[in-house]
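Standup notes
- HV: blocked on the assembly model, inputs below
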Amino acid sequence: MTGRLDMRRLLSPIGVERFFAQHWQTRMALLPLAEDDLAFVRRTIGPLDPARLAGLAREEAQAWLANDFVAHSVFPVDPSNAMKFHQAGATLYFVNVPLPALTESVADFLGAPRRQVIASLFYTPAGGGAVPHFDKNENFTIQLTGAKRWQVGEAPMVPAAPDSYTLGSPAITPALAPLLAKAQRPPEQTVELKPGTLFYVPRGTVHHTSAGEPSWSLNLSYTPTMWLDLLRVGLQERLTASPRWRAIVTGAGKDGAGGDPAARNANYLPELLAELRGMLDDPKEAEALTRAFFERLDG
Amino acid sequence: MRLIMRVALPPATENPALAAPDFSLKWQLMLKQVGALNADVREQGRLHFVLLDIDPVQITPTAEAVFRLAGVKPDFLPQIVPQPYYGVRNY
């Protein structure tokens, strides 16, 4: 053990090549963890103390409560009340706990910006769980203590889902709406997670969970950097620096509404497109465009 | 902690208990029993927002009181208090 997670070793039961060929972004994968890998993860996280983790969570700590009398409610949690919410039967969710020894290993293995991979912890009471939903993140879950039953779609309901969604909810983002309209919910499999299992669930895959006993689990999630983001950020940065690209659109209306003939003469979009083609055809320029994305996020 | 309990009451046709002449009285009594600090009503009495200052373990018993009376599950929202503003003028 080198002080980092060895993702190649973690995925060795199926093999890294097979993971990328058959599972990555398309299909769940369930893997047993070696005892010393689980011990390393546990040691890296430290004590599973709700108050401590509520203090560490960089984004926020939440309590989710839903039962026979309470409709699903989300409460902000702090170190002073985390344990009280657990006693009240809530699931505690500690979002973005700084665990670089784990998150950076995953990011570096995937060739992803390090800041896009975060670690979060779930403390689920007996009888707790999550309703059917899918995430916009690629999720690696490690069951730490207790047990949790997952029901997981055999394939993503929305491949490469741009946003998360709780099934049945009227809250649908504009980016998701057209994809959801033609989506079908694939059949599900039941997976029992026990301590020492690593479970990969691709984004867009419907899953719901239930814990028969108190359960702690670690979620290493990669908020995807889409290929379109990789170019968008660099292009935006590069083109914004140019007065010609920042200039006002003139004489470019559609359907003959291009304005006065003199205004149409001021339309130099064809020249800009030629400049763009040249930029994308030049390997050095293209590499510089993508580098801007990584430098912005990890700088 | 301070929370807002949101109760969406169904039409009285769906729950006859809500049409009972003493429902309003019972509702007020229930609010008193759960320690409501304030209550606001919107949409002609359909939506009730109740301000509470309760311990997390009291959330479910409070919701149960609502459920027993009105037959609906309330949800809870954290109370959001604006940050203090220390502007020097026009305030």
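- HV (later): unblocked. Chain B has a mean pLDDT of 88. Chain B is about 25% helix and 25% strand.
- Next: hand off to the docking folks.
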